[in-house]
Design brief:
Radius of gyration: 13 Å
Strand order of the largest sheet: 1-2-3
Shape: elongated
Structural class: alpha+beta
Largest sheet: 3 strands, mixed
Order of helices and strands: EHEE
Helix content: 10-25%
Distance between the termini: 20 Å
Length: 71
């Protein structure tokens, strides 16, 4: 998790899950399933969720980003 700091409250919190030889969408689903953002309930801004996968065979990276807005 990356916090924007008190000087930038308008910036979103970034939550990243890294995988290798899996898939980025699965990494994003893990963030949601395991409720990573729940530990940051006192944070008032929105979140960017990023699932990143690295394929060791092809050396390719895959990334899926989703915005989660607090209501």
């Amino acid at each position: 998790m990356f916090l924007p700091g008190k000087r930038f409250p308008e910036k979103p919190e970034l939550v990243v899950e890294l995988k290798w030889d899996k898939n980025a969408k699965g990494a994003l689903e893990q963030i949601k399933r395991q409720e990573y953002c729940r530990s940051l309930e006192e944070y008032q801004g929105n979140f960017l969720l990023a699932g990143v996968n690295y394929n060791r065979k092809t050396k390719a990276h895959e990334c899926v980003i989703e915005e989660l807005c607090k209501e």
